[in-house]
Structure formats: structure tokens, C-alpha cells
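Review form for a predicted model. The reviewer records the input and the model, then writes brief findings.
Reviewer: anonymous (R2)
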Amino acid sequence: MSPEPQRKLSVVQTPQEEKKPAEKRRSKWLLIAAILVVVLGLGGGAAWYLIGARATKNNDTLVEAGTPKSLTLDSFTVNLAEPGYRRYLRVTVTLEYTGKDLEKEIAGKDYRVRDAIINVLRSKTVADINNQDRTLELRQELVEAINLVLVNSQVKNIYFRDFIIQ
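Model under review:
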């Protein structure tokens, strides 16, 4: 008998054994990508929540502070300080304000607001109120007089609905 040649046994890797290191690398990258997506999602969500909450608060403040409201008072008829003449002024005033509680405050101090307006108007002569520039000065003077009476609110501007000198 002849000796049989010795065969070297070699280990042949099966396709499954070759895929294991590649799968490990791929699963590591998938795990890293998944963690990255979760972290970015949480960070983006937190930023959106915080910025959105701040923007909403700022918008509410802007709407409250920036949206003018108006309140029209009853007409005023006063004698002007015209020496030797009986001159009258009849005005209807609309107050512009931006706060919330002006109507409530004026309702409680109506007599004081009306008195402040009447005192300013009665101190004027026809020459004091007869042209555009002086009417603007009168508006500013009325705003200041009314705001001295008010504690919690402020009038921003005054508009004349009627302005009749007789």
C-alpha cells in the first residue's frame, strides 16, 4: 500500500463567518447614527420649545403694548378765557392708550379727568387754539394733565372728534 499523500487541512471560512466583522462595524455605525439622531432631535426640540415660548411671550407683550385702544369721552363745552367776549369751545375727545385698565381707572376717576380737561380748555383763548401748531400743543397739554390724574394707566395721544369755537 502506498502511503497516501498527506493532505493539508485548511480551514475554509464560510460566508457567514466572513460577514461577522462587517456586521459589527455596520451595527456600530447604526448605533452611533441612532444616538446622534436622538440627541439632535432632543436638542432641536428643546431649542424650539424655549425659543417658541420666548417668542410667544414677546409677541403677547408687543400686542399688549403695541395695540392702541381708544376711549371717547362725553363732549365738553367750556367758556374760553377771552377777555371782553363770550366765546365757547365744544370738543369731543378720544383718548388713545395701550394699557389694559384705562377704562376702569377713568370710570373711577371720571370727575377728576373731566375737571383736568375743563381746566386746560378754559385757560385758552381763541388765539391759543386757532391754528394747527397750537392745537398740537393743546393735545400735548391735555395728555399731560390727564396722565397726572391717572396712576395705573397712561394716555398716549388725544384726538378731537369735534372742535367747535363759537
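Findings: The longest strand covers residues 155-165.
Further findings: Residues 69-165 form a domain with the Tetrahydropterin Synthase; Chain A fold (CATH 3.30.479.30).
Recommendation: see findings above.
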